Amino acid sequence: MIELSDSSASIAGIVLLTIVTIEFGGAFLLRIVRGQVPMTEFQKSFARAGHAHAGVLVTLGLVCLVLADATDLAGFAGWIARVGVPASAIFISAGFFLSSLGKGTTAPNKLIALIWIGAAFLAAGTLTLGVGLLTV
């Protein structure tokens, strides 16, 4: 049986609770696809991308928690290995959703920068965890 550290168990619990928001996003996405919510093609594509990234990155984040506990990473490195990917799910998804807000929007606003912040968290988390696993 795999035993999670207290840190990983707490983070996993929080991440699992966020899945409800992804479910609500999926229901909203179905309304968009059915034409019940007026959106431009740009907004539809960003809504799909935001939803997809949330689901995939939350799942990867849960896997990373188990892997982080298989390393000797502690302190800041351990924190980045555990929180990097879940944080990227928040920032990347928010970047897609928030940068496409507004009636008739056809191009992203400045909040697209959130995607790049999320990408930095994703890179930091996976690189730290990868190095941690290779040096066990």
TrEMBL record:
Residue stretches spanning the membrane? 12-33, 45-68, 80-99, 111-134
Q: Which UniProt keywords apply?
A: Membrane, Transmembrane, Transmembrane helix
Q: Which organism is it from?
A: Natronoglycomyces albus
Q: From which domain of life does this come? A: Bacteria
Spell out the protein name for this chain.
Uncharacterized protein
